[in-house]
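MODEL INPUT / OUTPUT PAIR
PAIR INDEX: 1
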Amino acid sequence: MFAGKTLYRVGKALLLQKFFGVSTPLSVTFLTTHICNFDCDTCDIKKFPGKDIETARFLEMIDQVAQAGAIRISFTGGGEPLLRRDLGELIGRAKKRKLIVSLVTNGYFIDKKLDDLKQLDLLLVSYDSSKKLPGDQPSPLGKVLQNAMLAKESGIPVVLQSVLTRDTCLNLESFFDISHRHGFVLSLQPLASWYQGGIIPDSQTPSVEEMRTAIDRILLEKKMHNNILNSVKYLKTVHDKWLQPNSKGKCYAGILYATVTQDGILSPCNPFISNGENKISALEEPFQKAFRRLTSPTCQGCLWNCHLELNQMFSFDTETLFNLILFSRNRIVYRKGKKHLPELT
């Protein structure tokens, strides 16, 4: 998944940007659909209904993203990607174009889409107590975990991804226990709104003390068991900057990566998606041309792991790169044979 050739392409893109002002979309995230079968308290996506990109145009855009120099694309939330009937076709086109392909899912329909998902380089399954079905239906977490195990047993690289709500921060041990029992790599994402101006319930927001205590425990877990995908640098940034502006470091949003919304609007990054004017549509012109009209967001920074880890990688941070190389070689996994790991029954 990650090799010297990738580093070469990143370096080339950085030089083109620095000396010639040419931006290259190395990583592109697609918010795949507006539709979702969950009704989570921490997600405001249902406030922004719209029309999804049609299959033919989506396939064309994947081709254009690859031609523009992309290394990786991600099909992610903002709706549940597995609800798109053409998902297998989209993944297949991306793989045909030799892109690294990841997908983020709530996990509920993995068993229905297993053959399509076998094409992926990485499957991230959302798993935490904020995940809810509409109404008074029982918690979906049992089925989600069962489906994640099914995907893993089918040879798909699976990561369990949890949002650091207050409840998650206070109950990390149960999350770690699942990793130990079933051999899952874990990824942690601080609580954040999908859109600027979105509201997160105060009851779900960890205090600074709760977050710092949680991050200290996550860092210890990573040191002991090597089962946490996030880099140490990223975790320390969350520890120090939770509920504060985080403008430190170079941001490459709109320069080396971007996000495409469900209806084809191009944005520098997920948290900067706007419903205001001055929209750039990736449907009305070739992707590369639209991308080069993007500008970097002027903001106070964020703690989104998908963005900060990319910023660290594109800045050639050695710890981040080493962490990524280890994971890409499948070495960041729980191994029962390690003597320092306790036996769990």
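PAIR INDEX: 2
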Amino acid sequence: MSGYTSERLVGVVVAITVWAVVVALMLGAAVGSFLNVVAYRLPLGLSLLWPGSRCPDCLTPLGATENIPVLGWLLLQGRCKHCQRPIAPRYPLVELLTAGLFALIVLKVGVTVVAAGYMILVALLLALSLIDFDTLELPHELTLPGIYLGLGWQMGVIFGDSPLIGLLEGLLGYGVGVLLLDTIAVLGRIYLWLKVRSGALLSWQPVAALGVLGAGWGLGLFFSPQVPPWAVGLAFYGAVLLSWDTVFILRSFGQKPILEEADELVALGGGDVLLAGLLGSWLGWQGLLVALAVGFLTGTVYGLGARLSQRLGALERFAFGPFLALGGVVSLLWGNILIDNYLGFLGIT
């Protein structure tokens, strides 16, 4: 009797899991369809909600069946029914990718609040990746809200019983991400300058960063014996920097963006720095390090391959945001396993 009951219980669990995965697939495909809209319209300053989906060439509104994620593209055979212009296969691929990631999240953490948070972060990273791939820009309209969502995630979910510790963890991750990427950006500009030409490279930012870090370290000495001073120092640095970035970004809304000159020697863009901060606010500083390791490894492999094959020039830029986003997804889903294996390899338990 007990065996029969166990079999029925297993059957119920399997049925619920299958149902949850199917719902996640459908939700992911729908969200992926919306992400395609975001990636196309946001850089152009168009409304994300109006008008409805339409052909980008003839601007004819799509019908109900044409709007079905993936299936609509297949029914149309990849062409607009009205003007017969081809519809890029990227649209159904993004929908399939989002659906697959949402299903993987459900299989990983179940139908939980954590799964909902993971889905929000994955959707943000996919939208930013698509826009960066198209425009070499990471819009503040997505990165800044994403950072504050990450802080809320740490306070309300990860450290729900200790919101202040969650806030410190989120700010610490943000501060580490921005500090590391800013340092790499400065060193990269120095390298490019030495390789190409002379000019002014350093600004007040590294010096200001050291001053804020020092002030934060001093606060950390008196903050709590349970929190290391270096952690409070970096969290304080992250809070000051995030406040500065927020004011600067909000003041710049509605103004013509200040674009970098095409020949300016830039190793990493400001959007990449903010994206690292976003990842840190969601993943914490340890998860951020995993994300950066994966991002820099894959980005380096791509960059070297593209330059060796002459698809990119010696100083030609490419979108680095998608590689950081890839690192973020890997860290989100398998970061703890990678950290444990790495520490085990080093003999640290």
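PAIR 2 NOTE: The chain has ten helices and no strands.
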